[in-house]
Specification:
The chain is mainly alpha-helical and 135 residues long. It has one domain. The chain contains 3 helices and 2 strands. It has a two-stranded antiparallel ribbon with strand order 1-2. The protein is rod-shaped, with a radius of gyration of 31 Å. The termini are far apart. The mean pLDDT is 76.
């Protein structure tokens, strides 16, 4: 027959095992939660930098492929280049801007109700950097 001291020890063991199990599960969940959060932030930064590099590459390709047409002011060939580049998968819109930030060659024509009425500001080096990193 079990005495009161054995019953007390048995209940203490169960209480201690439960406390250890709760601590172990809680600390494991906390660790994996923090690791997941930091991994998600790292992946987000990595994806953003990859997107910026890809956009720089595409803009460089557009600049190199249309350079001669811009120098000769050959608008029909420029439109054909814009149409070809804009038909690539993943490219939604292609526009070329001049130094006063007005669009020279939109890929598609805007509907009249969507046209902007604001006057463009001159593009400075600070504006280019701001648009590049804050967009």
């Amino acid at each position: 027959m079990a005495g009161p001291s054995e019953a007390l020890q048995s209940s203490m063991r169960r209480g201690l095992a439960l406390k250890l199990a709760v601590c172990l599960v809680g600390s494991t969940a906390g660790f994996f939660g923090l690791a997941g959060y930091f991994n998600l932030e790292y992946e987000k930064r990595s994806f953003e930098s990859f997107t910026l590099v890809s956009a720089d590459r595409v803009s460089d390709i557009i600049l190199r492929s249309t350079r001669h047409e811009m120098l000769k002011n050959d608008r029909e060939t420029m439109r054909a280049h814009m149409r070809d580049i804009g038909s690539e998968p993943g490219i939604r819109r292609v526009r070329i801007f001049n130094k006063t930030a007005s669009s020279l060659f939109p890929r598609t024509r805007r509907r009249p109700e969507r046209q902007s009425t604001r006057t463009p500001k001159p593009v400075t080096n600070a504006t280019r950097v701001r648009r590049r990193w804050c967009a």
